[in-house]
Amino acid sequence: MTALFDHSPWVEERADARPSCGDRHADLMAVVHDATPEEQLALIRAHPELAGKAAIALTEASAAEQASAGLDRLSREEFERFHALNAAYREKFGFPFIICVRLTDKAGILAAMERRLANDRDAEIATALDEIGKIVRLRLEADA
Prior knowledge:
Strand content: under 5%
Distance between the termini: 10 Å
Number of strands: 0
Shape: globular
CATH topology: UraD-like
Number of helices: 7
CATH class: Mainly Alpha
Structural class: mainly alpha
Radius of gyration: 15 Å
CATH superfamily: Oxo-4-hydroxy-4-carboxy-5-ureidoimidazoline decarboxylase
Number of domains: 1
């Protein structure tokens, strides 16, 4: 079974300790939304940087998802662009850029990175949690 949340087993543990509404995804995301702001940031920060140099730290699921978007096959120019945007994003927001890569491609990811750099931090936290929700939904469907 795939880890649904990268390096954050507490989400599933808390969901398992609560009464279920009958929808696993909704149960899990309720835990995420009920978490403290610090826990939400820790969850976001547990996700890997896209096309980052630390690819060895990727979970199996994240590695496969990044590969599905072609992020394991970047030209030097693409890698440098991802690296620069990742750095700018992390410097501005204090956490990695998160997007459900299985729902887009390299060009879409780069465009989203550039567009979302204009957001404020609160909007990006909300967007990152929404993207994590999309990732988890697809992982649940893959395990079904």
